[in-house]
Amino acid sequence: YIMSFLLPDLGFDYTALEPHIDARTMEIHHSKHHNGYTNNLNNALEQAGISDISIEEILMNLDMDNMALRNNAGGYYNHCLFWEILNPSDKQGLEGDLEVAINSAFGSFDNFKEQFSKAAATRFGSGWAWLCAKDGALEICSSANQDNPLMPGIGCGGTPIMGVDVWEHAYYLNYQNRRADYISAFFNVVNWRVVSEKYKNA
Ligand code: MN
After folding, report:
1. Distance 144 CA to ligand 1 centre (A)
2. pLDDT digits (tens, 9 = 90+) for 124-170
């Protein structure tokens, strides 16, 4: 049987991000939505006869016309990254090389936050906003549905080091239509230690 992807453990309790992201939203998001992307990814890979490559390789070499694989490989990867950067274990603030790079690219953290929040708020319908590293520099972009910048022709083409899910399933139970409030709350739960590690490895 071919390799299959597993739903990763969240790594923290569903309650851990309250009051910013509520436990019920986290539980449904992880155990239902992410689990669904995981199962559908494995089915799409079997259909396509693809096995034994990493999720990053799948995304970078994706046939964009294969919608089942595109949606579910994206959904699998995007949520894995999202849980990682929200993990409250050994949480740190922004510092070091990433802080320098953000100030260099955007002028200040406040400018970065404003531009990232705008990218997330103005993504029409469902999608994601991303902070990406590309050739050592930082860029902000957004993508529709479960697309991401590792896919051919999507976003800035960089490596995502931070992302925010702006599908309604990510916030509607607690924030209803107030996406801007959810985006603002998201900044309270980002673990910059994890984002910095991703920046170093990008
Ligand atoms: Mn989601």
Report:
1. 12
2. 999 999 999 998 899 999 999 999 999 999 999 999 999 999 999 99
CA of 167 to the centre of ligand 1 (A): 6
Model confidence pTM above 0.90? yes
Measured between alpha carbons, how far is 157 from 51 in angstroms, rounded to an integer?
24
Q: How far is the CA of 39 from the centre of ligand 1 (A)?
A: 15
The whole-angstrom separation of Cα 194 and Cα 196 is: 5
Specify the pLDDT at position 138. Answer: 98
**Residue 11: what residue type?**
G
Tell me how far the alpha carbon of residue 32 lies from the centroid of ligand 1, in angstroms.
10
Hey, what amino acid is at 5? F
Spacing, Cα 164 to ligand 1 middle (Å): 9
Residue 177: Cβ within 10 Å count: 10
Distance between Cα 141 and ligand 1 center (Å): 17
CA–CA distance, 70 with 95 (Å, rounded to integer): 35
List pLDDT tens digits, range 1-34: 456 999 999 999 999 999 999 999 999 999 999 9
Helix (H) or strand (E) holding 162: strand 159-165
